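Narrative of activities, Objective 1.

The group set out to show that a structural description can be obtained from nothing but a protein's sequence at a throughput compatible with the screening campaign. Below is one input-output pair from the validation batch, recorded exactly as produced.
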Amino acid sequence: MNTELRIPSVADWDTWLGCLELAFGGVPLTPESREMYATLSRPDRSLGHWDGAECVGTAGAYAFQVTVPGGAAVPAAGVTMVSVAATHRRQGLLTSMMRRQLDDVRSWGEPIAVLKASEPAIYGRFGYGAATGETGLRIDTSLVRLALPPGTDGVRLRRVSPAGALDACEAVYARLAPDRPGTPVRQPGWEQLAVNDPAAHREGGSPLICVLAERDGEVTGYVTYRVRPAWDEAGPRGTVAVRDLAALDAASYAALWRFLFGIDLTSSIECGNRPADDAVLRLVSDVRRCEVRLRDGLYVRLVDVGAALEARRYRAPVDLVLEVEDDFCPWNAGRWRLTGDAKGVASCRRTEDRADLALSVRELGAAYLGGVSLTSLASAGLVRENRPGAVAEAALAFSWDVAPWCPHEF
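Output recorded for this entry:
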């Protein structure tokens, strides 16, 4: 069966989006979400497969900037809205879209591509490696207590409308973004995603609620959440469902958690996406009653190995020759010498020297943000050491002191 792969026109948008909705269960987006994504999406960075007048495959790529180790914001393609119609599976549509998309990303001068995978098994063959983890929590607040740091009582909490607090919350987000690799730097319009609250997505809960933390008149943190009421024979069993929580200091962070623990008529807190090293796990009295679940988060694909490795900083001096395997983007394949000084600044150039390590671009993407150990990958047989000590040298240089994390979907 022949299909046409092309950039959708503005007139194609509803048909293109309808293909995506059908692939993800057939539930249409709410009018609010449809309008928001229509605004954020870039038709010139999107692709569609067409079988006559029917759209049977979709893929998009937002223009992002993502924080990498060292705090720099690196241009990145935020891969999104990928689907293939059930009637057109196993015909090479996805592979052709990934091929065209990565060629486009390279032409746009973006050294990395990133995505959140609906199904983790899909993207490894295209060179994407799982680079961050995210923690889900369900905390039994009837049994778990918090250890509070000094200064918590000096934090003022104030409830505001999510839309009214948006600028203050975004200012906190912007200050924190350089500190954690994997964090997307907000582009214009993306702040609306944080307050998008269609009734169809509330699962019987309240509209979104926002509480600000303040110290000395300055906003130092925020939490957005909803409450899902529930009762049983023993009384109230409501759940606090946290969408986002961020703070600039330990006292504000703890004050926001203390507030969530004390919400009336509730006995649990649920969080779907927290960093793997979230500090709340150090504050709780009983981590076993927090039902900690770790899953994959952001996937990273190095589109330009040399530019990507030069964009980040390194934890220790490094001088390594990496032999990179990349069948899908052959311009990356071959040997690269990575040399970095004590300040973490590095260069990465082509070389004919003997390789110290050999690995695929997928494993390089997994290690890129500093959250996946090259030692662990080597133990799994995914990194091959040609020079004794090279794995240890590389693992130290690539590691970072903060777990990478992508705090929102796209």
